[in-house]
Amino acid sequence: MSAPAPVQRTAIQLFRDCFRLVRHIAPGHSPKAMALKIMVRGEFAKSKDVTNEVEIEALKAGAIRALSNYMLYESGAKDKKLGSAMKKFNDDTRKGTTNSNLSPSGTEKDKSK
Q1: CA–CA separation, 70 vs 22, rounded Å?
Q2: Cβ(4)–Cβ(58) under 8 Å?
Q3: Cα separation of 39 and 42, whole Å?
Q4: Is the pLDDT of residue 97 over 70?
Q5: Eight-state DSSP code of residue 21
Q6: Which DSSP state fits 9?
Q7: Nearest to 62 by CA among 20, 9, 1
Q8: Residue 61: half-sphere exposure toward Cβ, Cα within 13 Å
């Protein structure tokens, strides 16, 4: 397996981005805000001694994925069409059903075959 592509953001930048997101989700000093801050600090502290470049890139990619997932979630809440598509996908996933008409790339399969 090849190494993931290098992430352009530094660990410090990602840490700050995570804290900005916490301030956006739970402003002030509410219990939710404090719990999120503790969680973010803990996750970064857990990885502070990692020196392997491949592991560092994987950890950075995970942080970016978490930030991206939240942004997608927020977009779905504001955009009715995206929100309904996300809800349908989640409902189908929970039921264990998938759209068998889609190929792995997400495009419609040719039914004539």
Answers
A1: 11
A2: yes
A3: 5
A4: no
A5: H
A6: S
A7: 9
A8: 11
Beta strands in 47-104 (DSSP E): none
- The span from the CA of 27 to the CA of 24, in Å, is 6
Long-range pairs, 65-68, Cβ under 8 A, ≥24 = 66/18, 67/14, 67/17, 67/18, 67/21
Mean pLDDT, all residues of the chain:
78
Q: Which amino acid is at 35?
A: A
Q: Are 67 and 19 in contact (CB under 8 A)?
A: no
How long is the chain? 113
C-alpha to C-alpha distance for 101 and 108, rounded to whole angstroms: 6
Q: What is the pLDDT of residue 3?
A: 54
CA distance 71 to 77: 10
Please indicate, yes or no, whether the overall pTM of this predicted structure exceeds 0.70.
no
